[in-house]
Amino acid sequence: MKSPTGRLVAGLLFSLLVVGAYAAYTLRSVSRMREVQTGIVDRNRKASLQLIRIQGDLNALALSMRDMLDNPDRYPLIAWRPPLERVKQNLEDAIAKESALAQGRREADQSAYLTSSFDEFWRTSARVFDLAQAGKDAEARRLVRDTLQPRQEALSSLVARLLSQNNDEQSRASGEVGGIYSNIERNAYWFLGLSMVLIALTGVGLIRSNRALFAHLAGLAEQRRELAQQLISTQESTFRAISRDLHDEFGQILTALGAMLRRADRHAPSPEFREQVHEAAAVVQGTLENIRGLSQSLQPVILDEQGLLPAVEWHLPVFERQTGIKVHYHAPARAIDIRSDRAIHVFRVLQEALNNVARHADVREVSVSLNIDDSWLRLAIEDAGKGLPEPIRPGVGLAAMRERAELIGGSLSVGRGEWGGTKVELLAPVEALTEVPVA
Fold first, then answer.
1. What is the CATH T-level fold of the domain 5-206, as seen in this structure?
2. 81, 129 Cβ separation under 8 angstroms
């Protein structure tokens, strides 16, 4: 199988590239939108406020000039100079601020025309007051009527046009901002759609790769299961052959040797010789018993003849005699007829767990509990020893116990028990232990 890592990395890099490109585009669009809003809309708004201020001052000039011509309060013409000076200062300040805000956005000739028109207006105004100062009121009023008022009207019209231009430019900027918003929204939908497609394609690719990978793993697991079953079957055949050889050959040899020693005892020439014969007979008898016990452990005939529970009850005292470890056995309340080819796996798990206790736990007691109900068989072996090492490094024995548990459709758990030591628990379904094999 080819690993999907390369395709996944390529997909990840492409996704990052798309996300980066979209992020760059979005940031650039937002920057442009901010520039339009702050550089055009805000400045136009401030410039429009200054133009409105200029319009207000021009209207004040118009009212002042009307009062200068009508003179309802009989004020001398020269008395209007201070109010016009204040309006002039206010206008100059407003024009300066408006020119600074309009710089770069308005044609230079418009700004120059506005400035020159106001300069000409104020020069004419100064001439009016000079004539009034000289006592030429009639000529001064005529100059106001014929020159200042038309200039004021022209300036008002110019400021109105500039204000209209500002409004048009602000509308255009608002439209540009709206266009940027629309582009961002549209591209967001495109990006969302592309992301969904990429996610869908990646998901399909992952699903296909995972399905192929899991199918491959399932095949390997099935091969491993078949291999484990063959190995365990070979192991049992080997145990059976060794047990038969021990019983048939070594057992017969030791039995014959015991018979010869008994004959020699009857014809012993001296008490010293008879004592030596007795010692040799005791050794032969002990060896014969050990051979028989080993033969039974390798191939417990009692398991085939009487079943699992009698085999467990026979094995536990043998384990106590061989190791000196006291076994606290909790027998099941009920017995069931378990197939011998399945019961051997439960028995081997018990054997291996007890052997591990004898080799590694360094304890004088061990608890064995066997419970059987309508659905499950539970076998638990627990000690109060030093527990499992950290990290756990499973050996061949533990792996064999797990394989045997899987062969009968069960599971094996190994962990820390209530006594602080190690607890091995086998859980197997009763149905798998008692079902009749199909021919």
1. Four Helix Bundle (Hemerythrin (Met), subunit A) (1.20.120)
2. yes
Closest CA to 303 of 331, 336, 340: 340
Indicate the Cα dihedral angle 222, 224, 228, 231, nearest 10°: 120
Q: Closest Cα partner for 354 from 331, 332, 378, 382?
A: 382
Non-local (6+) Cβ contacts of 59 within 8 A are: 156
Q: Tokens at residue 377, please?
A: 């068989």
pTM value?
Answer: 0.49
202 vs 192: CA distance, rounded Å: 15
For residue range 270-308, list pLDDT tens digits in order.
777 777 777 787 887 777 777 766 666 666 777 778 888
Convert 61-97 to b/e letters by CB count within 10 Å (16 or more is b): bbebbeebeeeeeeeebbebeeebeebbeebeebbeb
The CATH class of 300-434 is alpha beta
How many Cα atoms are found within 13 Å in the side-chain-facing hemisphere of 96?
6
Torsion sign over Cα 86, 88, 90, 93? negative
Instruction: Give CA–CA dist 88/94, Å, rounded.
Output: 10
Neighbours of 421 (CB within 10 A): 20
**Helix, strand, coil tally for the chain in percent (to 5):** 75, 10, 15
Distance CA 6, CA 9 (A): 5
Tokens at residue 153, please? 């009207």
Residues 401/352, Cβ–Cβ less than 8 Å: yes
pLDDT of 37-92, one tens digit each? Answer: 666 677 777 888 888 888 888 888 888 888 888 876 667 888 888 888 888 898 88
Q: For 251-257, which contacts have Cβ atoms below 8 Å and span 24 or more sequence positions?
A: 251/288, 251/291, 251/292, 251/295, 254/284, 254/287, 254/288, 254/291, 255/288, 257/284
Q: How far apart are CA 380 and CA 330, in angstroms?
A: 10
In whole angstroms, give the CA distance from residue 10 to residue 179: 35
With H, G, I as helix, E, B as strand and everything else as coil, classify residue 324: coil
Helix (H, G, I), strand (E, B) or coil at 388: coil
- Provide the CB-side half-sphere exposure for 345 (13 A, CA): 28
For residue 411, count other CB atoms closer than 10 A to its CB.
13
In the chain, CATH 1.20.120.1730 sits at 5-206
